[in-house]
């Protein structure tokens, strides 16, 4: 129909409604300029959609057309109102669409990739193995010669390289563990950008430790991040030790050179060389220099010797010995004895009074003789069988009787009495020193050609009774024991004391009745007097007689008992035989020669402790890291890729856009923005409180 517009329904004919021409032109103009596809709007279901057409001939739309146009106008207005919003949020929508694959990926079921735990464990095990290798390498170098400078440099390079490698491996294991623990901690707390930066840059920036938020919220993991293996142990140079077999001198008691004279009647005398050697020890108190083995390279020499040698063993005297000793003391005769006022023909012993303190007096009214005195020291060698009082000599106490010791029946003992003065009181000590056969282990050392001998082992075997040995035709080794005993005891025999004559009426050896007389022996002229017990006794006697005694500073007097002093003197006299070829023979010994060449000296304790502490701390860190991996369910690192992917949240990106470039230092406002890491989704901004304006 002309001048009308029709709406053709898809199901049946529609009613026709006449419209004014003006409206017709208006609608025609509208649809001529705009075309709307109503199929794109949910307000028009497909089941009821119609096609809007204009009948040019009539120019009048139907009623349905008017209703449709009204709806279309409404839709168009809505689209215009939302147009600007869609344009404004276009980028955000695009970003959301871009993030969709990431969200989809992070939303998958989590599983720990093998790389992070494997690297942690492998680095830890490798570091521990190389640390053990470092220790074994230095142990192999210990006491080895350094050699030339090139060899020394290579040894130090290898040691430093092993130390650095241990450092790198343990630090790598700790670093991976620290990162895993850090990601776990970040997932539980909102932390500022600046704190996150400091946490990941803890090993490169010492100022990170000034971050209070880091110290307060991440204090548990700070020690883990700060663990470092020890530095390389330095190698110290020392002496090189070379071991070789050589011939060295050892005492040979069967050597006949100990004896200079021997007759069929059993009398013999000591070799002059041995006498001089013992005399030198008595006077100086020092062991003579030993003979160093021949054909040795220069250096400090050490070797061991074992032998059976004669010694004196001193013990407190028994009561029987004390009684016999006193009887022997009274029987002594001679002007050089303890009672010089008796001559060889005087037999009036009943007139002599001797108390338990060895103070004595002698009174002979017929001769007008009154003498008092005191004994400070007395040494005597007893016979095997005591002689009666009619004998010319009751015991061997005079050094002039030395030649008789070997031919007489002596016990191989020397009895000594010494007075101990303390605060005006006098107590007498009785000592019995016996000749013993002893087994000795010696450590001989030559340092710069100066010899020293140390006793590593001393075993007392059995006492030697010289009376039981057949002196006539005795083998040389037994004669050597007797000669040793003679020479040592020659300095221990005799007396030291004082006397004073109140009246002189007979054959006296003193020149003045008003003067004190000192009776002395060879002992008082030796170095042995500079020992505490002998020196105190001598000082007390010199004070009694009113003579000045040279005072010695304390360090000049050795604090040693008389028993120990006698044993030491006898030992040195025996060892002194090592200084003379005549009394020794050669035997094969193992010699250690410490030369002045540079060697490596390794003190393992420092390295073991350092590496052990580092290993234990690293193991603890790895355990913490593995636990964090298990809790996280996935592994993270500190690479750029990880941070780029985990910063995809729209709000995080909005914040970061305000600070392009990323140059240091980071803007303070940006540093205050707080983030929390959501495992599987990345970092999110803290919206719970106020945050800086960006």
What this model shows, in words?
The chain has 694 residues and is α+β, with helices and mostly antiparallel strands. The protein folds into 4 domains: 21-88, no CATH class; 115-232 and 602-685; 240-310 and 575-594, no CATH class; 313-439 and 463-557, no CATH class. Helices cover 37% and strands 22% of the residues. It has 17 helices and 16 strands. The protein has helices at 21-33, 63-88, 90-106, 115-141, 149-186, 193-200, 212-217, 222-225, 272-284, 319-331, 476-489, 532-544, 562-575, 604-632, 640-646, 650-657, 668-672, and strands spanning 191-192, 236-251, 259-262, 268-270, 300-316, 352-354, 359-364, 369-380, 413-422, 425-447, 450-463, 494-503, 516-519, 584-601, 674-678, 682-685. Strands 2, 5, 6, 7, 8, 9, 10, 11, 12, 13 and 14 form an 11-stranded antiparallel β-sheet that branches. The protein has a 3-stranded antiparallel β-sheet with strand order 1-15-16. Strands 3-4 form a two-stranded antiparallel sheet. Helix 4 packs antiparallel against helix 5. It is elongated.
What does the oligomeric state look like here?
A: single chain
In one word, what is the shape? elongated
> Beta-strand level of the residues, as a percent range?
15-25%
Structural class: alpha+beta
**How many structural domains?**
4
Distance between the termini: 67 Å
| CA-based gyration radius | 57 Å
Q: Can you give the helix content as a percent range? A: 25-40%
Task: Catalogue the unreliable spans.
Answer: 1-64, 80-109, 222-233, 385-393, 505-513, 690-694
Q: Note the total helix count.
A: 17
Mean pLDDT: 71
Largest sheet: 11 strands, antiparallel
Instruction: Write down how many β-strands occur, each being a DSSP E stretch of 2 or more residues.
Output: 16
């Amino acid at each position: 129909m002309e001048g009308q517009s029709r709406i053709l329904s898809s199901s049946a004919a529609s009613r026709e409604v006449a419209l004014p021409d003006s409206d017709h032109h208006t609608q025609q103009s509208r649809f001529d300029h705009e075309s709307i596809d109503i199929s794109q709007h949910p307000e028009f279901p497909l089941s009821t959609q119609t096609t809007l057409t204009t009948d040019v001939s009539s120019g009048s739309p139907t009623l349905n057309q008017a209703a449709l146009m009204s709806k279309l106008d409404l839709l168009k207005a809505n689209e215009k109102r939302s147009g600007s919003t869609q344009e404004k949020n276009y980028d955000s929508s695009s970003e959301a669409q871009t993030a969709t694959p990431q969200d989809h990926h992070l939303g998958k079921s989590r599983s720990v990739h093998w790389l992070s735990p494997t690297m942690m464990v492998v680095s830890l095990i490798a570091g521990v193995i190389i640390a053990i290798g470092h220790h074994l390498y230095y142990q192999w170098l210990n006491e080895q010669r350094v050699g030339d400078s090139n060899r020394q440099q290579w040894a130090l390079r290898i040691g430093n390289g092993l130390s650095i490698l241990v450092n790198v491996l343990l630090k790598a294991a700790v670093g991976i563990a620290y990162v895993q623990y850090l990601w776990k901690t970040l997932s539980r707390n909102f932390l500022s950008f600046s704190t996150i930066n400091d946490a990941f840059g803890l090993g490169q920036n010492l100022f990170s430790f000034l971050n209070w938020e880091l110290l307060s919220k991440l204090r548990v993991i700070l020690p883990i991040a700060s663990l470092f293996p020890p530095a390389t142990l330095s190698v110290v140079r020392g002496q090189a030790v070379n071991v070789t077999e050589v011939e060295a001198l050892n005492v040979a008691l069967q050597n006949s050179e100990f004896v200079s004279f021997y007759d069929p009647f059993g009398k013999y005398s000591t070799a002059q060389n041995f006498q001089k050697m013992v005399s030198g020890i008595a006077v100086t108190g020092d062991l003579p220099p030993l003979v160093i083995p021949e054909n040795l390279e220069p250096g400090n020499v050490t070797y061991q010797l074992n032998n059976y040698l004669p010694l004196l063993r001193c013990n407190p005297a028994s009561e029987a010995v004390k009684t016999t000793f006193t009887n022997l003391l009274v029987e002594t005769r001679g002007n050089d004895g303890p009672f010089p006022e008796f001559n060889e023909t005087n037999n009036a012993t009943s007139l002599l009074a001797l108390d338990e303190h060895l103070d004595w007096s002698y009174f002979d009214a017929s001769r007008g003789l009154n003498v008092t005195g005191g004994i400070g020291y007395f040494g005597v060698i007893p016979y095997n069988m005591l002689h009666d009082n009619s004998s010319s000599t009751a015991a061997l106490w005079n050094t002039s009787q030395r030649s008789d010791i070997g031919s007489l029946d002596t016990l191989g003992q020397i009895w000594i009495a010494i007075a101990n003065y303390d605060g005006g009181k006098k107590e007498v000590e009785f000592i019995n020193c016996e000749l013993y056969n002893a087994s000795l282990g010696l450590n001989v050392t030559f340092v710069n050609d100066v010899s020293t001998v140390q006793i590593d082992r001393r075993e007392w075997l059995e006492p030697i009774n010289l009376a039981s040995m057949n002196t006539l035709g005795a083998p040389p080794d037994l004669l050597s024991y007797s000669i040793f005993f003679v020479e040592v005891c020659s300095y221990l025999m005799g007396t030291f004391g004082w006397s004073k004559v109140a009246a002189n009426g007979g054959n006296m050896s003193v020149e003045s009745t008003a003067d004190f007389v000192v009776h002395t022996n060879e002992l008082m002229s030796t170095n042995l007097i500079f020992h505490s017990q002998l020196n105190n006794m001598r000082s007390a006697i010199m004070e009694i007689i009113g003579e000045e005694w040279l005072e010695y500073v304390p360090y000049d007097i050795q604090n040693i008992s008389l028993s120990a002093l006698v044993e030491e003197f006898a030992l040195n006299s025996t060892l002194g035989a090592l200084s003379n070829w005549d009394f020794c023979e050669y035997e094969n010994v193992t010699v250690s020669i410490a030369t002045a060449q540079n060697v490596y000296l390794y003190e393992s304790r420092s390295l073991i402790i350092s590496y052990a502490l580092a290993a234990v701390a690293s193991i603890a860190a790895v355990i913490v890291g593995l636990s964090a991996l298990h809790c996280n369910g996935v592994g993270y690192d500190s690479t750029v890729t990880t941070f780029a992917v985990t910063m995809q949240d729209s709000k995080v990106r909005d914040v970061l856009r305000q600070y392009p470039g990323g140059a240091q230092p980071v803007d303070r406002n940006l540093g205050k923005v707080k983030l929390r890491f959501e495992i599987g989704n990345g970092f999110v901004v803290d919206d719970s409180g106020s945050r800086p304006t960006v």
